[in-house]
Design goal:
This protein has 119 residues and is mostly helical. It is built from 5 helices and 2 strands; from the N terminus they run αααββαα.
Length: 119
């Protein structure tokens, strides 16, 4: 078990980062902290994809001649696209948080629910 964990430590790190991000989303009542936690969760997913694409002693499939295990560039391209989409979604989420703060005067989820119940 220890040998498996030491050889696949990036998967363990990815799962820990996923758990921290999920805990932040569930446990924090602050909307900004939820967005930060979602970004942490997203980084865990990125690490998992990149780790799964890793090939020991692999060489790039483009511009390389010779034998050897080739590394597929597809997961890396997908992660680059996901990073761009993640930054965009973070910007939209923070813009919505600004509008929510202007409307309710708080970023706390429970305070917002109380204000909605009073209206």
């Amino acid at each position: 078990m220890i040998e498996l964990l030491s050889s696949h430590y990036t998967y363990v790190a990815a799962m820990l980062i996923l758990a921290v991000g999920l805990y932040g989303v569930v446990a924090s009542p602050n909307l900004v902290k939820k967005i930060v936690a979602l970004n942490v969760f997203q980084v865990g997913i990125f690490l998992f994809f990149i780790s799964s694409a890793f090939v020991m002693d692999g060489v790039p499939a483009i511009g390389t001649h010779g034998p050897g295990p080739y590394v597929s560039p597809l997961p890396h391209v997908l992660i680059l696209t996901a990073i761009v989409v993640g930054v965009s979604l973070t910007a939209v989420g923070l813009a919505l948080v600004v509008r929510i703060y202007e409307g309710y005067g708080s970023l706390n989820e429970q305070v917002i629910r109380e204000v909605q119940a009073d209206d």
